[in-house]
Hints:
By secondary structure, this protein is α+β, with helices and mostly antiparallel strands.
Amino acid sequence: KNILFRTKHFSFIIMSVVRRLFASSSPLIKSQNLLPKSTIRFAGSYSKVGMGSTDGAFEKDKIHREPTEGNSRDYTYFMLGGARFVYASAVRLALIKFVASMSASADVLALASAEFDVGGIAEGTTLTVKWRGKPVFIRHRTADEISRENEVPLAALKDPQTDSERAQDPEWLVVLGICTHLGCVPISGAGEYGGWFCPCHGSHYDTSGRIRKGPAPLNLEIPPYTLADGKLLVG
């Protein structure tokens, strides 16, 4: 019986507290007069529940500030904003340096193009020069060579190209001196067609640099170049 009495008493206390907490926000409870006419106030006032006690700790410990007085929140915002600005500037500078490091240096740009004087190359001969570490064949062709290459039918070619497609000026042919089979350097003025011959596996090229016989699948590559006033600019 004693335990049952304590349980009922404890439940009654809990229900009373809950009703008091919701009294101010529940017009239904107020209308039914389920709570005693006592006043409950939170932070900054007092609590009077039957005993008449007063709690003034909040007013005692409260820090009063004038409206014009500085606030630590402003300082915090200033520091956070400044730190983010510095961080963003550092990231931007790092990205700029990274992109700049990816561009070619001055010495690499100097090797990107090369100029050669072709005025001294006799007809029917080939000059071999170096560009970007690769051999370049510059051939001064004769009228017979030009006429012969223009008469070759495209159906007879493994990699069909007309002579006019491969030579900006009919007298001059500029090609990379690398066999398109396995990258060997062909011999100038050799082979069955008078152009170039690769002794590694027997590829024959004509004086237009087109593959005519052998295992090479493609014609000799033509580098970008311009020819004017006896000067050849490759690259």
